[in-house]
Amino acid sequence: MNVIPAEYGLILASVLFTLGLVSLLIRRNIIFMLISVEIMLNAAGIAFIVAGSKWAQPDGQVMFIFILTMAAAEVSVGLALILQMYHQLKTLDSDAANKMKG
Amino acid sequence: MAIIFYMASAIAVIATVMVITRHNLVHALLYLVVSFLAVAIVFYVLGAPFIAVLEIIIYAGAIVVLLIFVIMMLNLRQESVAQEKQWFSGKIIIGPLILASILLVEMLYILTSGEPAGLSENMIEAKAVGMSLYGPYVLGVELSGILLMSGIVGAYHLGRQKKKVTHRFLEKKEE
């Protein structure tokens, strides 16, 4: 049973985070932007789990649970905002909401 | 165990690439579920079985179902796919992709330039996580409870429709 290097876990986290960042930058659909934020939060959680596994401490997993809680609260508020925006503007284009006065 | 880690990581990355290149929202969400499942396997291999279960239940379960419900409520039609295709044209991708990949290469260089270190083989069981969560981190647990509460209140307040029914004395006379 060979040991997994800790760098590979962190590399996986960085690659997933970069993919989420690219998706956030190139998309105009606001639901896709919310999904990319979820991908980035998940990648940050992977980094915490890898660090916790490296030091054999449960603290990394505790931090992941906090990230999970934050992601759940964030997605519920974000989806409520998206619903409200769709009712007002009838589109999911994030550029349509660039005026302060809706 | 190492080969399982590499395979699951490859599946997670490929599924995430598929998520960010889809035009149809539901297809993207299905690939997102695959990505979360692969990440859960990575967590299990890294010695975090409790977190692997939470990843499946909350990320692949609750959050994705919430997104699917909202897509169903919005009732998007086939036009939305064509519109997404039009928004997601080839030229837009180049700039962010180059800049983000430069950052990625820098980060990979920093990560691999240090001393190589192996991960510990032993599992961290749910009991140790729970002892830590309700021991030194109990304040964080209380604060996440408040955060979830404010999330519920905020989602209710934002998602509320305008009240359409008024009292019969306040209604305008139609005749």
The overall strand count of chain A is 0
Q: What count of helical segments of chain A does DSSP give?
A: 3
CATH architecture of chain A: Orthogonal Bundle
Oligomeric state as shown = heterodimer
How many distinct beta strands of chain B? 0
Determine the structural class of chain A based on helices, strands and strand pairing: mainly alpha
> In angstroms, what is the radius of gyration of chain A?
17 Å
Largest interface summary: A-B, 71 and 83 residues
In N-to-C order, the SSE pattern of chain B is HHHHHHH
| Helical residues, percent of chain B | over 70%
The chain-level structural class of chain B is mainly alpha
Beta-strand content bin of chain B: under 5%
Give the name of the CATH superfamily of the largest domain in chain B. NADH-ubiquinone/plastoquinone oxidoreductase chain 6, subunit NuoJ
Order of helices and strands of chain A: HHH
Task: Output the CATH class name of chain A.
Answer: Mainly Alpha
CATH architecture classification of the largest domain in chain B = Up-down Bundle
Tally of domains of chain A? 1
Largest sheet of chain A: none
Stated plainly, the CATH topology of chain A is called: Helix Hairpins
Rg of chain B, please? 23 Å
By DSSP (H or I, 4+ residues per run), the number of helices of chain B equals: 7
